[in-house]
Amino acid sequence: MSHQNVIDFVERRREQGHEPPDLGQGSVLGVLPVPETGAVLMIVGYLVPAGVPADVPEPPAAALPRRAAPGEEELVLDRAARVARAGGEEIELTFREFELLDYLSSAPGRVYNRRQLMAAVWDRYDDEGGRTVDVHILRLRRKLGRHAGRIVTVRNVGYKYQPPRRR
Q1: Is pTM beyond 0.90 here?
Q2: What is the pLDDT of residue 124?
Q3: Residue 142 pLDDT greater than 70, yes or no
Q4: Could you report the per-residue pLDDT of 50-76, keeping only the tens digit for each?
């Protein structure tokens, strides 16, 4: 979307009595219409001078590795190093396998259908390729070994990541 379209959008919203969002010193990078809602998603970017540390919030607790209970083997995803470890041993995952495991484990218990996984991991938004998800889940489970049960199939829906129950 061009800069002119963004300005037109902001002006139309102002004419309709809606105050545009305060963008501060940010630059509008894009405006995406949200179908059937009459709303838009505004993507705003901010320039931060190099060498000056930005205020970076602490990562949410879900992003931190969970500590294993005594006797329980730990599965840890190191997002910075793009490595999965089980009991201290590195699990060799392909790029897509890591992305899939990372995406599923980012919201434990949430069920994702194949189309959502295709959009998030493969950046494809069509209905084709659902079998690709199934094949990658199968390969991922094989590599996870004892932890394969953490990726749960929800029949006629999709997949979810289920962490082990705490004792």
Answers
A1: no
A2: 81
A3: yes
A4: 665 555 554 444 444 444 444 446 888
- Measured in Å, how far apart are the chain's first and last C-alpha atoms? 52
What's 28-45 look like in SS3?
Answer: EEEEEEECCCCEEEEEEE
- 98 Cβ contact list (under 8 Å, min separation 6): 77, 82, 84
Q: Provide the 10 A C-beta neighbour count for residue 132.
A: 16
- Under a CB-based contact definition with an 8 Å cutoff, are residues 33 and 16 in contact? no
Q: How far apart are CA 108 and CA 102, in angstroms?
A: 10
Among 19, 66, 21, residue whose Cα is nearest residue 44? 21
Backbone angles phi, psi at 85, to 5 degrees: -130, 140
The β-bridge partners of 145 are none
